[in-house]
Every structure is written in C-alpha cells, then in structure tokens.
C-alpha cells in the first residue's frame, strides 16, 4: 500500500468519527473504531496490517494465541462480595518458604531469588494490583512473574471484567461511578488482605480506583497502606484528552460518543459480530493506542489485543461515562506521607504523561518516572522499567530486601537486544 493510500485510510477513520450515531450503526468498521476509542485502547490504522493478507493475519493470530505464555500465571482463587452483591474474582500468590542453603526453591529461579533478596523473609506486606479499563488482572503478567514467590500479591478483576461478575447494580440500571470501583477494591482488601500492610498498585482505571478508595476510606490508607504506585493514570480532567486526534475530530467524537455507545450497548450481539469481522482493523487500533514502540513483540501485541477484545461492548458503554466525571485530585493529599511511585509512558495518548505530572505536583515527594518511547500499556511494553521501579518502591515499603528484579526486559524487539 502506498503512503497516500495509507493516509487516505487514516483519513477515512477520522471522517467516520464525525458521523452520526445512526451512521455508526450502519458502518461496522466505524462502530468498532469508536467503541475501542472509548475503551482508551485504539485509534488510527497500522499500515503493516493493511499490507498483509487477511488469511495470513488470522493464521498468525492463532499461532500467537497458541504459543504465547502471557496471561498464563494463576494463583489461589478467591471471591469478594461488593456492596451491591457483585462477586469479584481475585487470585493470591503467596510468598515461597525460605529454602535451606544450597537448596532450590519451588519452580525455577530459587537460587537467583535468594541471591537477589537474601534469605531474610519478606516483611508481611501484600501488594494489591488493580488493572485498567477493558483489561484484566493478567495485564500485570510481567510484574507478577518477576515478583512471584518474593512477596505476597493479590491480582483481581474489576467488576464486569475478566472472571468477575457483571455489575449487579448496573444490571438494575444504576450508573457506574469510580466511587463504586473504590468500594469494590475495599471489598477485595477485606477478603484477601484482612490484616497486615498493603502496597496499592493501579494502572489507568486501576489508579483511579485507588484514588477512590482513598477518598472514601482515608483511615485505611493512613493505618494500613505502606506505599502506592500510580501507573499511566489520571486524577481528573479526562474530558480534555484529545487522543492524538485533530481538534475538530475530537470535538466530533465527544459530541456523538455518548449516544453512539448507548446505541451500541443495546445491540451488543450485533456489534460483537462486527468487531470479529473487522479484527484486522481492531488490532491496528489497539496497537496504535496501547504502544509507542514500532517493534513491540507481536506476541505481546496480540496478548493486549486479546485482553481488550474480550471486553463486551455493553461493558465499554457502561463504564465510559464514569471517566468524564472522574475527579479525585482532592483525595491525593492522603498519600503525602507515603512512598509513592508515579510512572507513565511519555507517548501515552490515553492518559497523557501530563496527567501524571499533575499528580506529582500534588505529591512533590513522589518519584516521577516518564518512560521514553512508551504508550498506555507501559507495563507490557517496557516491563523491565516498570518492574525495577516497582521493586524499589517495595524496598522502601519494607516488602522485600533488595530491588534487583530485572528478569523481564523490554518487549520491543531491538537490534542486538536479547
């Protein structure tokens, strides 16, 4: 495909974004595009996806699904009950018991872990990971793999995501708000971490969930939280994000988006068929808004694709309004006396790095890390950076005895990099 043809294709997507709600329903490709844009996961078309045969791309996806190890880690399952009765699924990875001198720990890497962390048992701290919109607990795959057995961790699926139940209140017509997600996190903590110190880690919507927890339960933060990590998130003003689109396009999208999503959410089965039929476009959109590196490992890109495409369109529609109303800047001071990590990709088009800088302005003692050549899914794109900074935070929180967790490097395929 020529550059002019690719430009025309991209222009078609932008033009489609300005269509009416009825137009979206008629155009399956455009409908899929706007749904993913709302999910904070997509915009634009990857040229390489347009220059390879559809059959070949389908076979490649199937091959990557069969061989990719990402998202395969499992822990001890549990369920928490939210205040509206919704069942929230979580998994716990416990600390591995200390081994005698010269012995190997359970699974691979036992000796390496003792060298990195010493033989001192980790402090009784639990790290609770909260994932983002249209993702799931497996989005923390690399960090979970690096920390597994070294510190107690809890990974949970937000309501209507992953293995958690669809929100019961939403099924009864109650609008979803970020405050509800904060209460959900409290329910998970009560069930999975009834005692001991906690480190809270949240990506995107997960970071907003942590802020909502602090807003409603400040005493919990003061009494039990040892440290906090905000990854690619925002404390508010998300309605001003332009997603890398021209101003006119953004205005058009904002004007029609609420009505479009409501319409799409009422025709979920039809829309899901459209998403499957336009899988190639969908993949290009996800890659555009998830990553910045041009050479991200295809298996990682496909993993992100699977996570996002598993979110039903009516869930996308259900959650979207909560983000325009989200404002938890007033809750941030609760974290001032804690070790705080604020990390974002410099080229994040969903929650721009300026939003992380705004959080850092309120928390001047926090560590602010802006990762070059990184997009919204920075923990998948540059896992080594995220894991290393998180490990340092855990050292400061007293959860581990050393910070050298460097087993998982960048997933961008760079010349000369192993």
From TrEMBL:
This is Alpha/beta hydrolase. It comes from Streptomyces cavourensis. The keyword Transferase does not apply. Signal peptide: none annotated. It comes from the Bacteria. Residues 96-115 are annotated as: Disordered. InterPro entries: AB_hydrolase_1 (IPR000073), AB_hydrolase_fold (IPR029058), Carboxylesterase_BioH (IPR050228). The keyword Ligase does not apply. The chain crosses the membrane at residues 29-52. Keywords: Hydrolase, Membrane, Transmembrane, Transmembrane helix. Gene3D superfamilies: alpha/beta hydrolase. It holds the Pfam family Abhydrolase_1. Residues 126-383 form the AB hydrolase-1 domain. PANTHER family: HYDROLASE ALPHA/BETA FOLD FAMILY, PEROXISOMAL MEMBRANE PROTEIN LPX1. One of its GO terms (molecular function) is hydrolase activity.
